[in-house]
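Running co-folding for flavin-adenine dinucleotide.
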Amino acid sequence: MLPDYAEYGQAIGLDWYAVDPNLRFLLDKTLPEEEDRLLAEEVVSEYGALVGSRIAPRAEVTDRHGPVLDRYDAWGGDVGRVVHHPGWLENKADLVRAGFAGGLEAKVGRPVPAVVTAATAYLVSQAETAAYCALGMTSGAADIVERYAPDQVRDGLLARLTSLDPEHSFEGGMFLTERQGGSDVGANTTRAMQDGSEWRLFGEKHFCSNVDADVFIVLARPDGAPAGSRGLATFIVPRHLDDASPNGFTVKRLKPKLGTVGVPTAEVSLEGSLAFLAGSVPPSDGTAPPLDAARDGKGINRMMEMVNASRFGVALMSLGIHRRSFLEAAIYAAHREQFGKRIDAYPLVRETLVDLLVDLEAGLALSFECAAATRSAPSADEGALLRRIAIPLAKIRSCRIGLESTIQALEVLGGNGYMNDWPLARQLRDAQCHTIWEGTENICAIDVRRAMRSSGAEQAVLARVDRALEAAAPAGRLLESASSAVRAAREQLVEAIAYIQSVPEDLALLQLRRFSYLMADTLEGALLCEEAAFELDRSGNARKAAIARRFTARRLDSRPLRGITDPDRTVLDHFEPIVRYGEIEPSALLSTAGRSV
Ligand SMILES: Cc1cc2nc3c(=O)[nH]c(=O)nc-3n(C[C@H](O)[C@H](O)[C@H](O)COP(=O)(O)OP(=O)(O)OC[C@H]3O[C@@H](n4cnc5c(N)ncnc54)[C@H](O)[C@@H]3O)c2cc1C
């Protein structure tokens, strides 16, 4: 059954997997093994129903009733308790039971491919990225605990961080940022003092999301370590001590945020908090671990593993908001009439809706590639290299385009779009967070260059573009214009790489954002061509080819006269099958007159 936006009263209440055939397509393409695909179907369909019918309606309410800090108890004791609307707690409990906080493998009893967890994150983000923030950091913290926690705490913490029982489960958070040290974490001053085999932390953290979690991964500088980021170490800090007393934490205040209201973000003071060094192996005689475990210059890397995973998560958050924005706009446009017609009959509205989907499918192609790369690349090394550079690219591009798309979608709702009792005002407020947290766009663009400098990761991008173009070749004329736009962009990219590598530092830095956009767009265009060929081969449907052609014409080609004289009629002639995921005959697409497509 094709989605019919005129039939739906609203997005909330729908099964968000059932109304998203492109998500099914991505799972089909990236999970060639039948067993994996069956698992994906079971997991993702459960999330589609849960998110659309239970998580999403509560998220609307909790946005209006954000958390508050109850500073003192009735006796005047400083308890610093965060009080939530019950809906926030119910949402997290439902998601913990569904395995979203790192318990999915335990729930299904086998390893879960990364594209399946990506699909669940994409769905949850359509309801509320704040909930994903809280529980995504929980699985990130579990990962650090599993790999780096000392024996004495590892198993106990891990069991609770990955628990499927909301009554028993722990949540996680990460504290990097300080007032003076945001992008520049090397400026951090939180101090780590050794106390036998344990550590005590002293300092102030300035942005602490999910602050009422139970386990925090915290950056601090061990006494005697050098200045800068290499002198930092990563610590595991429980919120409470074994006797349930507070572990030297003061929540100073909750931040008055623009969006992502449900998750409490706070300023925190650490006053001698007990901490465990991530990466230390305590000697069996109970004495302190060797000093160099805290000062080996690698402490920051352990935290960056969590940050990189979170950056990928933020790309998925943005794509989730982008998808929700499209869905809300498509439903609204199918109901709203002006000048005697549904507004989705008007060419300009059609163009907005089509391009919302075109950009969404491009962003999803790149993010699902990040998830699939280590399994699908010719070698594990190439897959890892591609993932290394594709994650910051995906974060940069999905967050920027996600934000712009939310604005476009909001405007489809006219004045209602701007109102808080319609769904897109919140999505816009939330989307603005994603270009900033887990590394701003600029910092991620610098990271793209770091990946090139440290490991030549640009070669993995070029090789992936080539593989995609090769896969698209059998589609012949249907993908000719799209493939040649990708080939031309690849040539520009090679030139741009040489330029960035050869010019003075300030000039190279000046171009890094534009450069990252070019690299991301080229890769996305190539992946869409590959997807289009896959779809043509398996079903003869040219809908994906229409998407690839439109994306490459808009994002990779410089069209004369800004495209005004382009006679392409795709938006007008194929609106229905594009936005409703229907069939387009290849011959119909070929007969669409047009220069660029
Ligand atoms: C809602 C929210 C929740 C957050 N939660 C957490 C959390 O749980 N834990 C945590 O540790 N942090 C958290 N953060 C902090 C977040 O990670 C930082 O805000 C972010 O890393 C940017 O740091 P900053 O705010 O200090 O900005 P700054 O680093 O001061 O940057 C300001 C501007 O300067 C630019 N800039 C800085 N350096 C460069 C450079 N070298 N080249 C070019 N441009 C540059 C930036 O791109 C940005 O545009 C949260 C932030 C928000 C908004």
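Result summary
The chain has a mean pLDDT of 94.
Residues 455-590 form one domain.
Job closed.
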